[in-house]
Each structure stands twice: as C-alpha cells, then as structure tokens.
C-alpha cells in the first residue's frame, strides 16, 4: 500500500505557523521540538522542518543543540534585559514616527484592535488578548512607515514573548489597554513628543512586571539544610 504523500508546504507557511505557536506559548520556552513529531503535525517532510527550525534559530526563537536536537529558546536574565532595552528604544522611535505619519485608516485600525484586545481580556482569553496586544504594537510600527524598523520590532516582539513567558508574573504577560488608548490618542493628535512619552511609560509598565533579578549561583549547603534536621 502506498504511503500518503506529504504536501509540499511552503517554508514560509510553516515558519509562520511555528513562530505563532512559540509567540502564543503553545510551544513554551525550553520545549523540545522533535523533527519527526513536527513533520507529522505540520504534514511536511523532515527536511522541510529542519529548514524551518534553522530559520527560527536565526531569529533566536529556537536553539539547536548538538546531539540533542531543537528546543524553544529560553532567554537568560541577561538576554531578557538586552531584549527589553532594545525594544524600548525601537518602540519609542516607532511611536514618534507613527504620530508624524499615521493615516486616519491606521488610527482606526489601532482603535479596533484595542477594542478587540479588551474584549479578550474581559473574557479571560489571555492567549488571544496577548496576541492582540502584539498585533497592536506591530500596527504602530506599520503606521510609522519604516519597513526596516518594522522588521526589527517584529523580531523583538517575538523574542519578548519568550522573555515574558519566562519572567513575567502570572497573569502579567500582556499589556494594559488604557496605555494603548493613550498611545492612540497621542498618535491621532499628531504629537510625537507625547506619543514617545506614552510609549516609554507603557514599556516601563511592561518591564516592571518582569522579575529580572539573577538567581543565586552558589548555595551554602549547611545553611540550606540547617533547619531541616
């Protein structure tokens, strides 16, 4: 009996599907990514899966470990800090440019996205709410009309999703809708200074909810066990 042929799925489609699963937390940081299981789940060849994993490794969303395979990346504290610093700079610039360049259609789209995000939060649909929040930040980058900056921010948003999955307090992985509304107001008013300030406040709120204190590397065995005997 002939084995069913796998569909020749384009690598871009597989890349988008796997990236979304990582961003949404369906494939959490540290999760193992066996080629055979991925090939079955994606109805793709192992060679195509290997190609996509390599692309995701280039995006720092996947780690390829010799003799162990592929894993969803798990940022260290230092990496998380670097991602936050870079995202803060990129987001402030996109907010300023969006206030200078956003069209009425772009502003309307942002308001619709924030309304959908609020509905998701009100319904306790955390995964969808966080995805809507990421989409909102991408919409600001699009309104800034700088494709290079938009690409940089898209990468940072993906890596930030991993950072939040590891270091955010439970229930604190998303954004604040009233922060988003303040951003839209400044962008619609064409006020770059206020838009940038609002974005800085927003990013400070996000970063403040991350626990980026390094864990102690050395443990005193006697102190650890002194009161247990």
Write the layout of secondary structure elements.
Blueprint: H1 11-23, H2 35-42, H3 46-58, E1 62-65, E2 69-72, H4 77-101, H5 104-122, H6 126-143, H7 147-167, H8 177-188, H9 192-208, H10 221-225
Antiparallel strand pairs: 1-2
Notes on the protein architecture:
This protein is mostly helical. The chain has two domains: 11-72, Orthogonal Bundle (Arc Repressor Mutant, subunit A); 77-208, Four Helix Bundle (Hemerythrin (Met), subunit A). Helices cover 66% and strands 3% of the residues. Strands 1-2 form a two-stranded antiparallel sheet. It is globular.
What's a quick, concise take on this entry?
This protein is mainly alpha-helical and 229 residues long.
Using the alpha-carbon principal axes, give the shape. Answer: globular
Helix percentage range: 55-70%
Largest beta sheet: strand ordering: 1-2
CATH architecture of the largest domain: Up-down Bundle
Which keywords apply here?
about 230 residues, two-stranded antiparallel ribbon, 2 strands, Four Helix Bundle (Hemerythrin (Met), subunit A), disordered N terminus, Arc Repressor Mutant, subunit A, mainly alpha, single chain, about 5% strand
